[in-house]
Protein backbone atom coordinates (compact mmCIF):
# COMPACT_ATOMS: atom_id res chain seq x y z
CA UNK A 1 0.00 0.00 0.00
CA UNK A 2 3.05 2.28 0.35
CA UNK A 3 4.28 1.99 -3.25
CA UNK A 4 2.37 3.40 -6.21
CA UNK A 5 4.61 1.68 -8.78
CA UNK A 6 5.77 -1.92 -8.92
CA UNK A 7 9.53 -1.40 -9.25
CA UNK A 8 10.26 0.08 -5.77
CA UNK A 9 7.90 -2.52 -4.32
CA UNK A 10 9.99 -5.34 -5.86
CA UNK A 11 13.20 -3.70 -4.66
CA UNK A 12 11.78 -3.46 -1.15
CA UNK A 13 10.93 -7.17 -1.23
CA UNK A 14 14.52 -8.01 -2.16
CA UNK A 15 16.05 -6.22 0.82
CA UNK A 16 13.29 -6.74 3.39
CA UNK A 17 12.24 -10.31 2.62
CA UNK A 18 14.15 -12.35 0.01
CA UNK A 19 17.63 -11.47 1.31
CA UNK A 20 16.87 -12.21 4.99
CA UNK A 21 15.40 -15.59 4.01
CA UNK A 22 18.51 -16.43 1.95
CA UNK A 23 20.69 -15.49 4.95
CA UNK A 24 18.65 -17.77 7.20
CA UNK A 25 18.90 -20.61 4.69
CA UNK A 26 22.67 -20.20 4.55
CA UNK A 27 23.28 -19.77 8.29
CA UNK A 28 20.67 -22.09 9.78
CA UNK A 29 20.24 -24.88 7.31
CA UNK A 30 19.51 -27.47 10.09
CA UNK A 31 16.18 -25.72 10.58
CA UNK A 32 15.08 -27.21 7.26
CA UNK A 33 15.22 -30.66 8.88
CA UNK A 34 12.98 -29.49 11.71
CA UNK A 35 10.67 -27.89 9.16
CA UNK A 36 10.39 -31.24 7.37
CA UNK A 37 9.52 -33.03 10.62
CA UNK A 38 6.71 -30.64 11.41
CA UNK A 39 5.12 -30.15 7.98
CA UNK A 40 6.27 -32.97 5.70
CA UNK A 41 2.89 -33.61 3.96
CA UNK A 42 2.51 -29.97 2.92
CA UNK A 43 6.19 -29.65 2.01
CA UNK A 44 6.01 -32.80 -0.09
CA UNK A 45 2.98 -31.52 -2.00
CA UNK A 46 4.65 -28.14 -2.51
CA UNK A 47 7.92 -29.70 -3.64
CA UNK A 48 6.25 -31.94 -6.21
CA UNK A 49 4.09 -29.06 -7.50
CA UNK A 50 7.07 -26.74 -7.94
CA UNK A 51 9.13 -29.53 -9.53
CA UNK A 52 6.28 -30.27 -11.97
CA UNK A 53 5.98 -26.58 -12.83
CA UNK A 54 9.73 -26.42 -13.52
CA UNK A 55 9.57 -29.63 -15.61
CA UNK A 56 6.73 -28.18 -17.69
CA UNK A 57 9.18 -25.61 -19.07
CA UNK A 58 10.37 -28.40 -21.37
CA UNK A 59 7.16 -28.12 -23.41
CA UNK A 60 6.21 -24.53 -22.60
CA UNK A 61 6.12 -22.04 -25.51
CA UNK A 62 7.66 -19.38 -23.24
CA UNK A 63 11.32 -18.92 -24.20
CA UNK A 64 12.24 -16.89 -21.11
CA UNK A 65 13.12 -19.86 -18.91
CA UNK A 66 15.15 -17.74 -16.47
CA UNK A 67 12.19 -15.47 -15.70
CA UNK A 68 9.91 -18.44 -15.01
CA UNK A 69 12.48 -20.15 -12.77
CA UNK A 70 12.96 -16.87 -10.93
CA UNK A 71 9.23 -16.75 -10.20
CA UNK A 72 9.36 -20.28 -8.80
CA UNK A 73 12.28 -19.19 -6.61
CA UNK A 74 10.22 -16.26 -5.31
CA UNK A 75 7.49 -18.67 -4.22
CA UNK A 76 10.01 -20.93 -2.47
CA UNK A 77 11.63 -18.04 -0.59
CA UNK A 78 8.25 -16.59 0.32
CA UNK A 79 7.13 -19.87 1.90
CA UNK A 80 10.49 -20.49 3.62
CA UNK A 81 10.12 -17.09 5.27
CA UNK A 82 6.82 -18.07 6.89
CA UNK A 83 8.22 -21.43 7.98
CA UNK A 84 11.31 -19.88 9.57
CA UNK A 85 9.19 -17.30 11.36
CA UNK A 86 7.08 -20.13 12.75
CA UNK A 87 10.20 -21.86 14.08
CA UNK A 88 11.87 -18.77 15.51
CA UNK A 89 9.11 -16.39 16.59
CA UNK A 90 5.77 -18.24 16.93
CA UNK A 91 4.69 -16.04 19.83
CA UNK A 92 4.99 -12.84 17.77
CA UNK A 93 2.67 -13.66 14.92
CA UNK A 94 -0.70 -12.62 16.33
CA UNK A 95 0.62 -9.20 17.33
CA UNK A 96 2.37 -8.73 14.00
CA UNK A 97 -0.76 -9.65 12.05
CA UNK A 98 -2.92 -7.32 14.15
CA UNK A 99 -0.52 -4.42 13.52
CA UNK A 100 -0.45 -5.10 9.76
CA UNK A 101 -4.26 -5.32 9.63
CA UNK A 102 -4.74 -2.10 11.59
CA UNK A 103 -2.36 -0.26 9.26
CA UNK A 104 -4.16 -1.68 6.26
CA UNK A 105 -7.47 -0.52 7.77
CA UNK A 106 -6.02 2.98 8.12
CA UNK A 107 -5.04 2.89 4.43
CA UNK A 108 -8.64 1.86 3.59
CA UNK A 109 -9.98 4.89 5.44
CA UNK A 110 -7.55 7.19 3.61
CA UNK A 111 -8.45 5.61 0.26
CA UNK A 112 -12.18 6.09 0.90
CA UNK A 113 -11.69 9.75 1.82
CA UNK A 114 -9.56 10.41 -1.27
CA UNK A 115 -11.83 8.60 -3.72
CA UNK A 116 -15.17 9.93 -2.45
CA UNK A 117 -14.19 13.47 -1.55
CA UNK A 118 -16.12 14.64 -4.61
CA UNK A 119 -19.31 12.86 -3.57
CA UNK A 120 -19.48 10.44 -6.53
CA UNK A 121 -20.42 7.21 -4.76
CA UNK A 122 -20.93 5.29 -8.01
CA UNK A 123 -17.14 5.07 -8.42
CA UNK A 124 -15.64 1.64 -7.62
CA UNK A 125 -13.28 1.95 -4.68
CA UNK A 126 -9.82 0.45 -4.45
CA UNK A 127 -6.99 0.48 -1.95
CA UNK A 128 -3.79 2.49 -1.95
CA UNK A 129 -0.58 1.71 -3.82
CA UNK A 130 -0.38 -1.84 -5.14
CA UNK A 131 -3.91 -2.52 -3.84
CA UNK A 132 -5.63 0.08 -6.04
CA UNK A 133 -7.36 -2.53 -8.22
CA UNK A 134 -10.99 -2.71 -6.98
CA UNK A 135 -11.18 -6.51 -7.40
CA UNK A 136 -7.73 -7.82 -6.45
CA UNK A 137 -7.16 -5.10 -3.87
CA UNK A 138 -10.58 -5.84 -2.41
CA UNK A 139 -9.77 -9.53 -2.07
CA UNK A 140 -6.49 -8.71 -0.32
CA UNK A 141 -8.26 -6.42 2.16
CA UNK A 142 -10.93 -9.04 2.79
CA UNK A 143 -8.25 -11.62 3.69
CA UNK A 144 -6.80 -9.15 6.22
CA UNK A 145 -10.28 -8.38 7.59
CA UNK A 146 -10.98 -12.08 8.15
CA UNK A 147 -7.70 -12.64 9.97
CA UNK A 148 -8.30 -9.59 12.15
CA UNK A 149 -11.88 -10.65 12.88
CA UNK A 150 -10.59 -13.81 14.57
CA UNK A 151 -7.70 -12.08 16.37
CA UNK A 152 -9.37 -9.53 18.67
CA UNK A 153 -7.28 -7.83 21.35
CA UNK A 154 -9.03 -7.52 24.73
CA UNK A 155 -7.38 -4.16 25.49
CA UNK A 156 -8.17 -2.51 22.16
CA UNK A 157 -11.69 -3.62 21.26
CA UNK A 158 -12.62 -0.17 19.98
CA UNK A 159 -9.67 -0.07 17.58
CA UNK A 160 -10.48 -3.63 16.47
CA UNK A 161 -14.09 -2.72 15.65
CA UNK A 162 -13.09 0.53 13.90
CA UNK A 163 -10.54 -1.28 11.72
CA UNK A 164 -13.07 -3.92 10.70
CA UNK A 165 -15.63 -1.24 9.80
CA UNK A 166 -13.08 0.66 7.68
CA UNK A 167 -12.08 -2.47 5.75
CA UNK A 168 -15.69 -3.59 5.37
CA UNK A 169 -16.66 -0.17 4.00
CA UNK A 170 -14.01 -0.37 1.30
CA UNK A 171 -14.98 -3.98 0.50
CA UNK A 172 -18.59 -2.87 -0.02
CA UNK A 173 -17.57 0.08 -2.17
CA UNK A 174 -15.46 -2.05 -4.52
CA UNK A 175 -18.82 -3.21 -5.96
CA UNK A 176 -17.18 -6.58 -6.62
CA UNK A 177 -19.92 -9.20 -6.57
CA UNK A 178 -17.52 -12.14 -6.47
CA UNK A 179 -15.81 -10.61 -3.45
CA UNK A 180 -19.12 -10.14 -1.63
CA UNK A 181 -20.25 -13.69 -2.33
CA UNK A 182 -16.88 -15.14 -1.24
CA UNK A 183 -16.88 -13.18 2.02
CA UNK A 184 -20.47 -14.03 2.89
CA UNK A 185 -19.91 -17.67 1.99
CA UNK A 186 -16.85 -17.90 4.25
CA UNK A 187 -18.59 -16.30 7.23
CA UNK A 188 -21.76 -18.36 6.86
CA UNK A 189 -19.65 -21.52 6.52
CA UNK A 190 -17.75 -20.60 9.70
CA UNK A 191 -21.05 -19.99 11.47
CA UNK A 192 -22.31 -23.42 10.43
CA UNK A 193 -19.04 -25.17 11.36
CA UNK A 194 -18.46 -23.48 14.68
CA UNK A 195 -21.70 -21.84 15.76
CA UNK A 196 -21.90 -19.12 18.36
CA UNK A 197 -23.87 -15.91 18.57
CA UNK A 198 -20.95 -13.64 17.71
CA UNK A 199 -20.13 -15.08 14.32
CA UNK A 200 -23.82 -15.50 13.44
CA UNK A 201 -24.29 -11.83 14.30
CA UNK A 202 -21.37 -10.81 12.08
CA UNK A 203 -22.64 -12.96 9.20
CA UNK A 204 -26.12 -11.52 9.60
CA UNK A 205 -24.77 -7.98 9.69
CA UNK A 206 -22.79 -8.54 6.51
CA UNK A 207 -25.85 -10.00 4.84
CA UNK A 208 -27.79 -6.85 5.74
CA UNK A 209 -24.96 -4.65 4.45
CA UNK A 210 -24.82 -6.65 1.21
CA UNK A 211 -28.58 -6.31 0.79
CA UNK A 212 -28.47 -2.56 1.36
CA UNK A 213 -25.54 -2.27 -1.04
CA UNK A 214 -27.38 -4.24 -3.70
CA UNK A 215 -30.46 -2.04 -3.38
CA UNK A 216 -28.34 1.11 -3.46
CA UNK A 217 -26.27 0.09 -6.51
CA UNK A 218 -28.75 -2.26 -8.17
CA UNK A 219 -28.60 -0.66 -11.61
CA UNK A 220 -24.78 -0.59 -11.67
CA UNK A 221 -24.46 -4.18 -10.44
CA UNK A 222 -27.00 -5.69 -12.81
CA UNK A 223 -25.64 -3.70 -15.75
CA UNK A 224 -22.50 -5.87 -15.73
CA UNK A 225 -24.56 -9.06 -16.00
CA UNK A 226 -22.61 -12.29 -15.42
CA UNK A 227 -19.39 -10.75 -16.81
CA UNK A 228 -19.19 -13.65 -19.31
CA UNK A 229 -18.27 -16.10 -16.52
CA UNK A 230 -20.29 -19.06 -17.90
CA UNK A 231 -18.86 -18.54 -21.40
CA UNK A 232 -15.31 -18.20 -20.01
CA UNK A 233 -15.71 -21.41 -18.02
CA UNK A 234 -16.95 -23.29 -21.10
CA UNK A 235 -14.05 -22.01 -23.19
CA UNK A 236 -11.62 -23.00 -20.40
CA UNK A 237 -12.91 -26.56 -20.36
CA UNK A 238 -12.49 -26.79 -24.13
CA UNK A 239 -8.88 -25.63 -23.85
CA UNK A 240 -8.16 -28.08 -21.03
CA UNK A 241 -9.41 -30.96 -23.21
CA UNK A 242 -6.89 -30.03 -25.90
CA UNK A 243 -3.94 -30.87 -23.58
CA UNK A 244 -5.54 -32.50 -20.55
CA UNK A 245 -2.54 -34.04 -18.76
CA UNK A 246 0.49 -31.85 -19.44
CA UNK A 247 -1.12 -28.49 -20.16
CA UNK A 248 0.56 -25.68 -22.05
CA UNK A 249 3.52 -25.54 -19.68
CA UNK A 250 4.65 -22.90 -17.20
CA UNK A 251 4.32 -19.41 -18.64
CA UNK A 252 2.29 -20.60 -21.60
CA UNK A 253 0.09 -17.64 -22.52
CA UNK A 254 -3.32 -18.22 -24.04
CA UNK A 255 -6.51 -16.45 -25.04
CA UNK A 256 -10.02 -17.75 -24.56
CA UNK A 257 -12.37 -16.99 -27.43
CA UNK A 258 -15.99 -16.55 -26.37
CA UNK A 259 -18.29 -17.89 -29.05
CA UNK A 260 -21.18 -15.60 -28.17
CA UNK A 261 -19.30 -12.31 -28.56
CA UNK A 262 -16.01 -13.16 -30.33
CA UNK A 263 -14.33 -11.60 -27.28
CA UNK A 264 -10.81 -12.75 -26.31
CA UNK A 265 -10.00 -13.24 -22.62
CA UNK A 266 -6.33 -13.33 -21.50
CA UNK A 267 -7.03 -15.77 -18.64
CA UNK A 268 -9.79 -17.99 -17.29
CA UNK A 269 -10.87 -15.88 -14.25
CA UNK A 270 -10.78 -19.15 -12.30
CA UNK A 271 -7.55 -20.31 -10.69
CA UNK A 272 -8.40 -24.00 -10.86
CA UNK A 273 -9.12 -23.98 -14.59
CA UNK A 274 -6.08 -21.75 -15.16
CA UNK A 275 -3.80 -24.23 -13.39
CA UNK A 276 -5.31 -27.05 -15.44
CA UNK A 277 -4.72 -25.11 -18.68
CA UNK A 278 -1.14 -24.24 -17.74
CA UNK A 279 0.03 -27.40 -15.89
CA UNK A 280 -2.59 -29.96 -16.93
CA UNK A 281 -4.75 -32.10 -14.69
CA UNK A 282 -1.59 -33.36 -12.98
CA UNK A 283 -0.72 -29.81 -11.93
CA UNK A 284 -4.30 -29.19 -10.81
CA UNK A 285 -4.23 -32.33 -8.63
CA UNK A 286 -0.97 -31.17 -7.04
CA UNK A 287 -2.36 -27.69 -6.33
CA UNK A 288 -5.46 -29.26 -4.78
CA UNK A 289 -3.16 -31.43 -2.63
CA UNK A 290 -1.35 -28.32 -1.37
CA UNK A 291 -4.63 -26.54 -0.71
CA UNK A 292 -6.06 -29.59 1.04
CA UNK A 293 -3.03 -29.89 3.35
CA UNK A 294 -3.43 -26.26 4.47
CA UNK A 295 -7.18 -26.68 4.94
CA UNK A 296 -6.58 -29.80 7.03
CA UNK A 297 -4.03 -28.00 9.20
CA UNK A 298 -6.43 -25.09 9.77
CA UNK A 299 -9.24 -27.49 10.65
CA UNK A 300 -7.06 -29.36 13.14
CA UNK A 301 -6.15 -26.08 14.89
CA UNK A 302 -9.63 -24.55 14.74
CA UNK A 303 -9.74 -24.28 18.56
CA UNK A 304 -6.95 -21.68 18.36
CA UNK A 305 -7.70 -18.11 17.30
CA UNK A 306 -5.06 -18.25 14.56
CA UNK A 307 -6.40 -21.59 13.31
CA UNK A 308 -9.96 -20.24 13.13
CA UNK A 309 -8.76 -17.19 11.26
CA UNK A 310 -6.83 -19.31 8.77
CA UNK A 311 -9.82 -21.62 8.30
CA UNK A 312 -12.02 -18.61 7.46
CA UNK A 313 -9.35 -17.30 5.09
CA UNK A 314 -9.09 -20.69 3.37
CA UNK A 315 -12.85 -20.88 2.82
CA UNK A 316 -12.87 -17.32 1.50
CA UNK A 317 -9.87 -17.85 -0.79
CA UNK A 318 -11.37 -21.04 -2.21
CA UNK A 319 -14.40 -19.07 -3.34
CA UNK A 320 -12.16 -16.21 -4.54
CA UNK A 321 -10.18 -18.61 -6.73
CA UNK A 322 -13.42 -19.77 -8.31
CA UNK A 323 -14.58 -16.24 -9.19
CA UNK A 324 -11.49 -14.16 -9.92
CA UNK A 325 -8.38 -16.32 -9.79
CA UNK A 326 -5.84 -15.30 -12.39
CA UNK A 327 -2.19 -16.32 -12.14
CA UNK A 328 -0.46 -18.70 -9.73
CA UNK A 329 3.19 -18.09 -10.63
CA UNK A 330 3.17 -14.37 -11.33
CA UNK A 331 5.52 -12.04 -9.46
CA UNK A 332 4.39 -11.07 -5.92
CA UNK A 333 1.32 -8.87 -6.04
CA UNK A 334 -2.24 -8.66 -4.69
CA UNK A 335 -3.13 -12.07 -6.18
CA UNK A 336 -0.81 -13.69 -3.66
CA UNK A 337 -3.15 -12.70 -0.82
CA UNK A 338 -5.55 -15.45 -1.86
CA UNK A 339 -3.06 -17.97 -3.27
CA UNK A 340 0.36 -18.15 -1.60
CA UNK A 341 -0.33 -16.14 1.55
CA UNK A 342 -2.77 -18.76 2.96
CA UNK A 343 -0.20 -21.47 2.15
CA UNK A 344 2.46 -19.48 3.99
CA UNK A 345 0.16 -19.02 6.98
CA UNK A 346 -0.48 -22.78 6.91
CA UNK A 347 3.26 -23.44 7.01
CA UNK A 348 3.58 -21.08 9.95
CA UNK A 349 0.74 -22.85 11.74
CA UNK A 350 2.44 -26.24 11.27
CA UNK A 351 5.93 -25.07 12.23
CA UNK A 352 4.82 -22.91 15.14
CA UNK A 353 3.43 -25.85 17.12
CA UNK A 354 5.39 -28.74 18.69
CA UNK A 355 6.22 -31.68 16.41
CA UNK A 356 4.40 -35.02 16.83
CA UNK A 357 5.50 -36.99 19.88
CA UNK A 358 6.64 -39.87 17.70
CA UNK A 359 9.25 -37.70 16.00
CA UNK A 360 12.38 -36.57 17.87
CA UNK A 361 12.96 -32.85 18.21
CA UNK A 362 16.39 -32.75 16.62
CA UNK A 363 16.89 -29.02 16.40
CA UNK A 364 14.85 -27.58 19.22
CA UNK A 365 17.86 -25.49 20.20
CA UNK A 366 16.60 -22.83 17.81
CA UNK A 367 13.78 -22.14 20.28
CA UNK A 368 16.14 -20.74 22.87
CA UNK A 369 18.64 -18.98 20.65
CA UNK A 370 18.58 -15.23 20.50
CA UNK A 371 17.77 -14.10 17.01
CA UNK A 372 18.64 -10.62 15.76
Folded structure, characterized:
The chain is an all-alpha fold. Helices cover 66% and strands 1% of the residues. It has 13 helices and two strands. The protein has helices at residues 6-27, 30-55, 65-88, 93-115, 136-149, 157-173, 177-194, 197-216, 218-223, 229-242, 271-300, 305-324, 340-351; strands at residues 256-257, 264-265. It has a two-stranded antiparallel ribbon. The chain is globular and about 55 Å long. The two termini are 27 Å apart. Residues 357-372 have low confidence and may be disordered.
Question: How many DSSP-defined strands?
Answer: 2
Largest sheet: 2 strands, antiparallel
Structural class assignment: mainly alpha
Number of helices: 13
Strand order of the largest sheet: 1-2
Strand content: under 5%
Low-confidence parts: 357-372
Radius of gyration: 21 Å
Shape: globular
For the termini, the CA-CA separation is 27 Å
Helicity, as a percent range: 55-70%
Order of helices and strands: HHHHHHHHHHEEHHH
- Overall pLDDT metric: 87
